[in-house]
User: What shape does this take?
Amino acid sequence: MKSFEPFDGMIRALRARPGHAFLVEWAASHEARGLEAVRAGLLCPTGGDPCGACPACVGPDHPDWIVARGAERIRREEVLDWPSRALVPPVQGRVKVFVVPAAERLTPEAGNLLLKLLEEPPLHVVLVLTTDRPHDVMPTLRSRCRPLRGPTDEDVPAPPDDLAALLQGDFGTTDWVDKLPELGRALRTALRDPGRIPALAGEHPDRLVERWQAVVEAAIALEENANRDLVRRRLERRFRGRPA
Ligand SMILES: [Zn+2]
Assistant: This one.
């Protein structure tokens, strides 16, 4: 069964108060998983939380989920047939969802066409715009949408796989300087939510705090131009639990 964590709160807000248009804000890095969560939230036929098993929750495609294509800009041609498609009732569920990822890419012409769609939307139509820069989304369009916030960077742990070795103090040839923010985030997440970061499951909170402090101190030392090798060696030692 699929889990939509850490988007559960957002899904509940979406299901509790349905509407015709949403502007979802999240970091661009959350787009793919976030869209899956929105799709499950709007289209899963189960009451309450999405089931995590039906085609709306797990399928690669869904006939009532229509996504705008387009690379740098989303032009009028990409959404030209949306008003006519909107008139056709949904195939499987109660709503038909039109999605514009990174909606700040809409050209004014495309945006105006979507505004028309929202003027007298058929009851089954839902428009979802996503963005990491809400103020770059066409204001007239933005004002018609209910704002929804996805999780922030702080809420989502970094992918643990490439961090696992680092978190255990095995720095190998990794460019650990670039990884400092991710390390700090993973440690903080593990402190708040034990078990969330598999590489740190079962660690004593004191050890997590110790390593988190080591990360912060390393970042400060680097800013003060401390010797990189020294900083690295100290960090490795403290990650492995030996005195610095
Ligand atoms: Zn489902």
Notes: The chain has a mean pLDDT of 86.
